[in-house]
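Appendix C reproduces, verbatim, an entry submitted by the partner laboratory led by Prof. M.T., so that reviewers can inspect both the input and the predicted structure.
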Amino acid sequence: MKWYSPETLCLGSAVFYTAFKPMELSLLSVLIPLVLLAGWVSLFGRRGRLLFLVLLVFLSASGAVYHWQSRVCIPFPPEQCCSVNGVLAEEPSWTSRGNLYLRINLVHAGQINGAAGEGAGTISVFLPEEKAPRSASWIRGDSIQVSGSMALLENRPVFFARTLNQYTMKTPGSFRRRLLGYVRQRAAGISDFSQTLLPALVLGLNHPLQERCTRLFRETGTAHIIALSGFHSGLVAALLYGFFRIIFGARGGLAAAGLGLLYYLYLAGPGPSLVRSVIMYEIVLLCKLGYRKPDLKKVLLASWLFSALFFPPSLQTLSARLSYLALWGLLFSTGHFEGLLHFIGIPFLRKGLSASLAAQVWTFPLVLTSFSVWYPAGIVASLVLTPLVALYMYSSLLYLLLPDIRFLTFLPVLLCRLLESLLIRGAEFFRMIPSLSAASAGPGLFLILLFPLLLGVVYRPGGNGGKREPEPELRLSYGD
């Protein structure tokens, strides 16, 4: 499709308005581009008008779902709230300051004067770790009641709890609870480091002592390795496909991989990056089952539009935006970097370095503007640490599947410890590479840094690798 075609312009408008929705654009800044777009696509006749109508319906539905899912209703002023009661929306995580971070679907709220009322929406709760000694076994769906005070941060209510009043397990004997407890227990049998790394890699579970592990990978620019995303779901899909293909054949293996990914999403939780990757894998698997070759750029766009329609608040999280930017870079810029690195004779190394460069370059503007620091070591560190993490994950899965008998688990444990040692040594080595810091950061800096990248995608006079297409020569022939 041409960039000026109604399909491209309507799709681009859908992505733009769903990406910048929280910026609370003024009415004129929203209507003027849409009016201009309506005038342009109407030149293409009925097809253009129909596409514009679909765009309006999509944006209206996405906006309604966004406001519904991001709403927070409290029956009195937030500063008068002294207690909240709700259901955990996700597993707890721990901050570097020793606090427990919870996301709660609000049910009831209590007022200072003793009154109480029903609430709605999802709020953030911070609770001191010493007030919740068994918090490592909490899972989403459990009920919790805490007391403290509420404040508004960036116009969003945040509850700072001081005491835990009540905690109720919704399903004490559920399979998911027993599985998460089993993974945590077996991981502790390998080493202290694996006690935090293994649950994070397999099911995205946080741990009270995870800060050391997280900081080590973050300071090497490879924090995405331990955050559940397409890398982890891809390893799970490959494992399921390889196993069930032996039993049911190729098509049976594809179907089993698709169903297994959906169940894996249920077990690990609907994180934005994992949701994006599972949607993309499901579309690719459906294309494979229908003997169609998937276009990954269209699959990425379909994943964004699906999330924008059904889970629009998730697209405003930093992890989701980094995930989409990284994959955008892989699909659109890997070929450019591979052409620039043509002097590297080893194809595997050239392709891997090109992919790493593409992902890092496209996420660089957002990382620098969000954290005021960027770790260029991630360009090379990803090439070294990613294969080690893949081997560690497969070794740990083998260890978890085997019975807890010493002579059976001896070799997997030994391999996990060896890979863990290599990961730590490699990360500590790459951490010595200095980082790039910005004194001030914000949306303006993000747009300034992102513009050259967009220009590089739109304006490509020489194609991939900077090589121009041969032009026909004009030759004059003279008669005798």
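The first helix runs from residue 6 to 19. Additional entries are available on request from the coordinating office.
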